[in-house]
Amino acid sequence: MSEDISKQKKAFLRKLYLAQLIDNERHNLLSLHQQTGMPRRTLQDAIATLSDLGIECHFVVDGVRNNAGYYQIKTWGPISGPWVSTHLEQIQRQLE
To answer: Could you name the domain of life of the organism this protein comes from (predicted)?
Structure first.
């Protein structure tokens, strides 16, 4: 049974989900797309607005090309990373 959630709540949960994925392993847009199935533009928009939640995310260049690298969470700010980790399955279900 899926519950209807608002666009705002879905956007919030998407940001938490992506931040958790980024914090647990090295991801770029391609690997995030492959793992989540989210469109590239959705991923870019969500990552770009993580700072709205106080989450600091940076792109670490790792190679000769500017787009070769991975995202890294510098700080979760006011968000509890361990809480997100504990509730990740519930968050994923709400995003389906």
So the answer is: Bacteria
